[in-house]
Write a structure and sequence with these properties.
By secondary structure, this protein is of the alpha/beta class. The chain is built from 4 helices and 7 strands; from the N terminus they run βαβαββααβββ.
C-alpha cells in the first residue's frame, strides 16, 4: 500500500492513524534515506500516543523510552543508524526495552530487521515531487488495522 504524504500535516495525520491502532508488542519499522521524515513520523506517533514535550532524535542515545504514565501505550523509540552490526542490538538489551511496549524503529535494517515479526508495520518513506510517499507493508497482526 502506498500513501501520499504531500506535506507536514499529512505526515502528522498518518502518525495519528498509526498511534490509534498501536498496541504493546508492535513494531513500527521506519526505513528511508536521510531526510525522508522517519523521525518526524516517529514524533507524530509518540505525540498522538499522549507524550507531552520534546521527542529527541535517538541518533546518539540509540534508544529513548516513553512510559505509560501519560500515554495510551508505552513506547520505545530507537534509531539504529549508528550500529555497525545487527548483533549490537543484543548488547543494547532491546528485548528488555520492548517488553510490554511498542517499538518505533528507525533504520531497522541496521538491527537485522523486524519485517518477519507478525506485529511489524514496515514503512519505507521516499521523496516524491514536493512531499513524500509511504510504502507500507504489514505483518499478519496488522492486516485488520492498517492505518
Amino acid at each position: 500500500m502506498t500513501i501520499e504524504l504531500p506535506d507536514l500535516d499529512s505526515m502528522e495525520a498518518f502518525g495519528v492513524r498509526i498511534a490509534a491502532r498501536l498496541r504493546a508488542g508492535d513494531v513500527v519499522a521506519l526505513s528511508g534515506d536521510l531526510g525522508t521524515g522517519k523521525t518526524t513520523l516517529a514524533r507524530a506517533i509518540l505525540h498522538a500516543l499522549g507524550h507531552k514535550g520534546e521527542v529527541p532524535s535517538p541518533t546518539f542515545t540509540i534508544v529513548e523510552t516513553y512510559d505509560a504514565t501519560a500515554m495510551r501505550v508505552p513506547a520505545v523509540h530507537a534509531d539504529f543508524y549508528r550500529l555497525e552490526r545487527p548483533e549490537e542490538v543484543e548488547e543494547l538489551g532491546l528485548d528488555d526495552y520492548r517488553d510490554g511496549a511498542a517499538l518505533i524503529a528507525e533504520w531497522p535494517e541496521k538491527a537485522g530487521g523486524f519485517a518477519h515479526e507478525p506485529q511489524c508495520l514496515s514503512i519505507t518513506l521516499e521523496f516524491a515531487d514536493d512531499g513524500r510517499v509511504a510504502i507500507v507493508g504489514a505483518g499478519n497482526d496488522w492486516l485488520e488495522r492498517l492505518p
